[in-house]
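Feature request, filed as a ticket because there's no other form

It would be nice if the structure record came with a short human-readable summary line next to the tokens. Right now we just get the raw output. Example of a typical job, pasted below so the devs can see what we mean:
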Amino acid sequence: MTGAPVRVLLTGAAGQLGQALVAAAPAHWQLIACGRRELDLADPEACRQAVRQHRPDWVLNAGAYTAVDRAESEPELALAVNAGAPQAFAEALAGQGGRLLQVSTDFVFDGEQGHPYRPGQPVSPLGVYGATKAEGERRIAALLPADRVCVLRTSWVYGPVGRNFCLTMLRLHAERAAAGQELAVVADQVGCPTATPGLAAACIAALDRGVSGLQHWSDAGAASWYDFAVAIGELGVAAGLLQGAAAVRPIGTADYPTPARRPSYSLLECGATRQALGLAPQHWRSALAGVLDALAARGG
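Raw output as currently delivered:
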């Protein structure tokens, strides 16, 4: 399929994954990139109309309501964006042809098992965000044949733009180190940080290879938020983004209460997806170093 013209309707183009996809889109893609200004994902008719107007070969739905804690107080909006929009895309595609790649999340799982989650395992989300993403998966599966849908679940996404844990930690490291203060970060939630450049490459490979079904993609390895925060400090100094890193103190989830419950373990089993996509895994620390080096190269 690689090399043939492919018409791709991309949502969430202004987000952190969307920007990575726009930057990496191959020459044979005819990319229709839609941010929030161009396409309101909370408006199902606008989503259907976008498909009817642009007649894409693929809808790459990288847009989402991702404010995990705020979703607890805005469940209707989270449901509209995370389930209503995928449903609307699937309805329109069902009528005129085309495929859907839906980016989803490790938060569809409850974190109760101690080994990586396989794509076909039952979902059991703990909060509104995970529940609405799981509902989006369910709705599109009911509307489109399996060979016309790819659901790509991922975890702990970050990149050089947008709002994410990595950029927040860089700022806090700088502030706390300058003030001689420490950072306290949760150490009993385990997953895998996933950098947007690699995730974008996975999305591109999925479209170009025509991959379908439930798929899991993250960078390799495992980390707690504490591990991630420590690494951001260490590698931020190495990249020249920080003069010094703050000391990081591990705390428990109970010490940092949030409106939404989060899975304590959300590693994804990605072996079959890596094989299907033809992509080798990159360890999360290596991917993080690449993101920080890219930030430093453009001036932080």
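Something like this underneath would help us a lot:
Residues 78 and 204 are 26 Å apart (CA to CA).
The mean pLDDT is 96.
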